[in-house]
């Protein structure tokens, strides 16, 4: 679990500091990591997390709650959140499964994590200049906590469901012998 936290933290920091320039690195690393450590059944969870997380960030952008940095300036010229935010969700998705398995033991632990950790990551990203909030910090913290309080238990339930799926899974292979 610590290994996955370190992986996510490095990829998150690359995206926050370098924006879209970090996306090819994150995608390449994610594909290689998936091919080495993940099974096909994990792909459903990964795609679900990326889609829902990216959608949540896009909604926050469209309601002018968060402004994301695009090429060293803040502008709202896209219909979706910037690629580097989607790459952060991909980084989270490939590294979070062991943590979700641990969180599955208690809804209260899930909620405690949800209302603190994700919002803290957004605040650190703001401090590093990757985004701006248009609402007071207390309101942003509550809003992000509420969104995460829905997403984290949902991700945990999906992870548990995919683990219990009776379909046989295998690790993907590039070359069959």
From TrEMBL:
The keyword Transmembrane helix applies. The chain crosses the membrane at residues 6-33, 45-63, 83-100, 107-125, 140-158. It comes from the Bacteria. It holds the Pfam family DUF2878. The keyword Nucleus does not apply. Keywords: Membrane, Transmembrane, Transmembrane helix. InterPro entries: DUF2878. This is DUF2878 domain-containing protein. It comes from Parashewanella curva.
């Amino acid at each position: 679990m610590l290994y996955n936290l370190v992986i996510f933290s490095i990829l998150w920091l690359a995206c926050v500091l370098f924006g879209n320039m970090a996306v090819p690195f994150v995608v390449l690393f994610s594909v290689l990591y998936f091919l080495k450590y993940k099974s096909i059944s994990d792909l459903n969870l990964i795609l679900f997390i990326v889609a829902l997380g990216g959608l949540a960030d896009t909604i926050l952008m469209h309601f002018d709650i968060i402004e994301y940095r695009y090429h060293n300036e803040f502008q709202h010229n896209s219909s979706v959140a910037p690629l580097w935010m989607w790459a952060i969700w991909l980084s989270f998705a490939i590294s979070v499964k062991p943590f979700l398995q641990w969180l599955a033991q208690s809804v209260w632990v899930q909620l405690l994590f949800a209302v603190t950790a994700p919002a803290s990551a957004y605040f650190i990203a703001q401090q590093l200049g990757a985004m701006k909030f248009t609402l007071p910090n207390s309101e942003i913290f509550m809003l992000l906590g509420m969104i995460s309080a829905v997403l984290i238990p949902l991700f945990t339930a999906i992870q548990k469901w995919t683990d219990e799926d009776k379909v046989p899974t295998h690790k993907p292979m590039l070359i069959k012998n």
